[in-house]
Structure formats: structure tokens, C-alpha cells
Amino acid sequence: MRTVRTVAELRSALGAARGAGRTVGLVPTMGGFHAGHLSLMRAARKENDVVVVSLFVNPAQFGPGEDLDSYPRDEAADAALAEAEAVDLLFAPSADEVYPAGFSTRVTVSGLTDVLDGDPERRGAAHFAGVTTMVAKLLNMVGPDAAYFGQKDAQQALVIQRMARDLDLPARIEVRPTVREPDGLALSSRNAYLTPPERDRALSLSRALAAAEATVGAGERSAGPVLAAAHAELERADVEPEYLELRCATDLSPVERVNGSTLLAVAARVGRARLIDNTVLSTHPGGKPPGDPPRKRSSGDPSRKELI
Ligand code: AMP
Hints:
Blueprint: E1 2-4, H1 7-19, E2 24-29, H2 35-47, E3 50-55, H3 75-84, E4 89-91, H4 95-98, H5 125-142, E5 146-150, H6 154-166, E6 172-176, H7 196-217, H8 223-236, E7 241-248, E8 262-270, E9 273-281
Parallel strand pairs: 1-4, 2-3, 2-5, 3-4, 5-6
Antiparallel strand pairs: 7-8, 8-9
Bound molecules: adenosine monophosphate (AMP).
């Protein structure tokens, strides 16, 4: 694995592979790698000839008073983990490389970014403008065939899919399932902030989602009782949600009844950590519908270590 820090180095490293018609997969990250990040790297590795992981703590997506300064940073540890996943290139630019003096362009997606985390009372639409500007830049810097994102950030994934569609960006946007600890806690770089008692309380988020799933599984379809079951789990742990909402899983419009495509999303502060989690509630008898839809795969190339 090579670490590159400039767009020029990145493009020159990818030039030969691209010229030879090899496919490129991109995994955008802010580092602090855990099994969720690694699952995206593995998916990219399986489906592309060349894998690029970007590592950049993007100041534009942090609001005033958020944890930009204390966000977990350990490039050496992250590089070792990426290398173990057979990543070809780690793109770790400086802030000046990403935002040169005079930088004055924003990519914004409206509508989808006004609700949930984008509500002005919460992180606000500026958070998503920071994300979409950065991801648009990364897609232009790397020019991947596919870029991989986690369902853990469900709203972010929808916003990025909408941006790519609206701007005719050529990369496929792939969204992969949330990776959880065995007890249900969704992996997050911010879990590092939790003390052991806080970690126990943080479990109430995934328990709330599970309680809602069980309620829907028992036949309930009205928003009220489904949300009440979820709220009860948060209350038991003395966790006050910033939001706990049912929304259409494709356009985030509010829903009163659970149908086959309903997102239940939660955000809550536990100690120093602001945590988010979500599930798409299944209305299939017996839980989640079997299997993911088939995905396009590129052929693996056993000699890929020499491609870059
Ligand atoms: P971050 O470094 O937090 O910006 O995350 C980089 C990518 O990893 C994003 O696409 C996230 O949605 C994804 N991700 C974060 N946590 C998880 C998780 N627990 N499971 C799957 N993907 C995740």
C-alpha cells in the first residue's frame, strides 16, 4: 500500500491502472478505522481491481462546538489496518491540499438535508454541504467506478446518492450494511469517547431499534406504538433522543404508517459522544427479507499488487 498526499500524486498513481482499463473503488473516511470501515474496504477490494481509501477529517462538516479537534486521529494505526485489507492507495491529504486559499465553492443538496441531522436545531444543512462538497471533490480527484458508504449514516448515503444522480457523477454509489458489536452497538469512531457505563447506556439506541422491529414484526403498523416501543428502551437507559423518527427510506418524508420502506432513525448524546443509528423496518413476516439484491462484480486480478 502506498500513502499519497496530493491530488497530483494520486492521479499519477492511478494513471497506469486506469489506462489499462482497471476498475477503481473508493472508500471515503475520516479515519479511526473500525470493522465498519474495514467492511467497506473489503467490499471495494472484492469488486474492483484497485482500491483507494481516503483519510481526511473534513473540517467543513463539523459545526461550531462539535468535536473536530478531539476527533480520533491515528494515521499509522489506520494505515496498518488498511494495508491488512489489501488497500492499494491511502490518500491522506492536508487541509491545504483539499481547501486551497480562496476556496469558495459548495455543493448542496436541498430537501433531504433539512430534516433529521440536517434540522437547523441539530447539525444543520451546513453539515451535509460539508459532506457533499468533500465527496464531490473526492469523486473528481479519484474518478472511481464505485464509491462505498455505510448504511450507518443512512441520511448521508441518501444525500450522496441524490447528489451523484442529480449531477450525473459517473461513479456507482454503493451503500453497505451497518456493522455492529455482538451486543448490537453500531460501530462508530465516536464510541471511543464512551466510558464503560456510558457504553452500556449507548446500547439503548440499538435496543430501541430492535424493540421497534419487534413491534412491527408483531403486526403493528401505526407510527405511535412503534415509536413508543423504541422510546421505552431509551428511557430505561435514561437517554434523551435528539430525534427518534420514522421516515420514508428513499426520500425521508415523514410517515404515519410503516410500510416496506420505512427508516427508523435515532440520534442521542451519551456522555461526550453524539451517536446515531438506524434501521429499515421490515414488514416481511419473520423479519428482514432474504438476501441483498445481486451486485455487479468486476473480475478479481490475482496480480493486482503490481498494478500501482
Ligand atoms: P467516517 O469515517 O465516520 O466518515 O465513516 C466513513 C464511512 O464508514 C461512511 O460511509 C460511514 O457510513 C461508514 N461507517 C461508519 N460506521 C459504520 C458502521 N458501523 N458500519 C458500516 N459502515 C460504517
